[in-house]
From TrEMBL:
The keyword Signal applies. Residues 1-42 form the F-box domain. One of its GO terms (cellular component) is SCF ubiquitin ligase complex. InterPro entries: F-box-like_dom_sf, F-box_dom. Residues 1-16 form the signal peptide. PROSITE patterns: FBOX (PS50181). It comes from the Eukaryota. Keywords: Signal. This is FBX15 protein. The keyword Signal applies.
Length: 437
């Protein structure tokens, strides 16, 4: 029953975030909170806060003179949209400026943590059941590595798998970020869709990564690991492995319904040697189990010849089976660590692989972070240097394949990587370089 003029006077004292929040109370508050007069003041005050007093006065005079036209010629909510657009554009520019600094070791942005802190970025998953009801899961545990971040969600109130249809992974940032104020999950936020996964027939259609006494792990592309209670049809936890390449762009620049699409690569002239194929590639490889690192290695001067291009793939040999000088020891027993509110464990014979392949110009060419499982091979090693069981670990996606062979040394209780081969899709190469292999 309060007069609109009085409510508008009260609203004029609110900051922008509070004004957006009060506009969600009811229809009348929404209409009043869109008042162009209030939002024009917010917009004008945020124009150039570092100007001198003389410039500020002239700007204020200009704003006042244009005030009547700016208020009467615009539809309700116009200046609110302009204010939000201006603030979010400045925020994105500030964040993207941080990720321009590249690590010469990995070829990836070296200030990801700083950029995430500035943006107030977090990640949530939204489980949607078959009736359309959504269940939001927040409060993840983060684990940072050289080239990726692992995000783990767990709780006691997960919906039953039988009623779930999809899982969506979102990057979430405050709509109007303020570094002086911690992000408020009840405040206005911007959602950026990173990936969507279909959960129908999860246990039948997914790759089984491994199991221990309590949970069984299922892998969904790209980079999602779902832990199911063993013998039950209930989710224990969800783990997402996010590679740093384009991580912030996908987490910030997308919309709630459409994923961020990176611009196409612009090939350099004469960047393909017609006689020798690809050359001078670099690889950075991490093998970890969320909390522990098993291998961190960089490999330079990778190349292939024309004869290495067959069956739709370009082959890059990183570790040669016959060259024991380049065989790599792996620290510790491979496995993926998990935890919930009560239980924790380690699933053996699997790991998370972070792969970063850089082209000859140092640009990220093929990147992923995904769980990989190991299998005991029936063949013998054929190597006189090692006597032990052979294990293989393979990964494949639309851009290529990775094949790894390990030898388990019982005496020293360690794995040795004796073979590591990358198979890059010729379609990927052709689209990247604008050529035809």
């Amino acid at each position: 029953s309060m007069p609109s003029e009085m409510l508008l006077k009260i609203f004029s004292y609110l900051d922008a975030v509070s004004l957006l929040a009060v506009g969600c109370v009811n229809k009348r508050f929404h209409e009043l909170a869109n008042d162009n007069g209030i939002w024009l003041k917010h917009y004008s005050s945020s124009l150039h806060p570092k100007w001198t007093i003389w410039k500020m006065k002239s700007k204020q005079t200009e704003t006042v003179s244009l005030g009547c036209a700016a208020l009467h010629d615009k539809e309700p909510g116009y200046w609110k949209k302009e204010y939000i657009f201006k603030k979010t554009s400045a925020f994105k520019t500030r964040v993207m400026r941080l990720v321009k600094f590249l690590d010469p070791y990995t070829g990836l942005p070296c200030k990801n943590k700083e950029a995430m802190k500035v943006s107030g970025l977090s990640w949530i998953i939204v489980l949607k059941d078959k009736n359309g009801k959504e269940h939001v899961v927040e409060k993840p545990n983060l684990s940072f590595k050289d080239t990726s971040v692992t995000v783990l969600w767990h709780g006691t109130d997960w919906p039953c798998l039988d009623i779930l249809s999809t899982l969506k992974l979102f990057g979430v940032t405050p709509l109007l970020p303020d570094q002086s104020i911690p992000p408020n999950k009840n405040g206005p936020r911007r959602f950026s869709l990173i990936a969507e996964y279909h959960l129908a027939n999860l246990t039948e259609n997914s790759v089984v990564v491994g199991a221990d006494d309590l949970v069984q792990l299922f892998s969904l592309s790209p980079g999602l690991l779902v832990g199911m209670w063993k013998g039950e049809n209930e989710i224990a936890f969800v783990m997402a492995n996010l590679h740093y390449n384009q991580l912030l762009e996908r987490s910030i620049l997308g919309s709630a319904n459409v994923q961020y699409s990176p611009p196409p690569n612009k090939p350099l002239l004469d960047d393909i040697d017609s006689e020798y194929g690809l050359h001078d590639y670099r690889l950075h490889l991490d093998l970890h189990g969320r909390n522990c690192m098993y291998l961190c290695g960089s490999f330079k001067c990778l190349f292939c010849r024309k004869g290495d291009i067959e069956n739709g793939y370009v082959r890059l040999i990183v570790v040669n089976l016959k060259d024991n000088r380049k065989h790599l020891p792996v620290t510790g027993t491979l496995g993926i660590c998990w935890e919930t509110d009560v239980f924790k464990g380690n699933v053996k014979d699997c790991f998370v692989m972070d792969l970063t392949l850089l082209d000859e110009t140092g640009m990220p060419f093929w990147c992923f972070s995904a769980p990989v499982h190991m299998e005991l091979s029936t063949k013998s090693s054929g190597l006189y240097d090692y006597m032990g069981h052979i294990y293989t670990a393979d990964y494949a996606d639309s851009e290529g394949k990775v094949c790894v062979e390990f030898v388990w040394l019982e005496e020293t209780k360690e794995y040795i990587i004796v073979s590591l081969v990358l198979y890059v899709s010729t379609k990927k190469v052709n689209s990247w370089f604008g050529t035809n292999y």
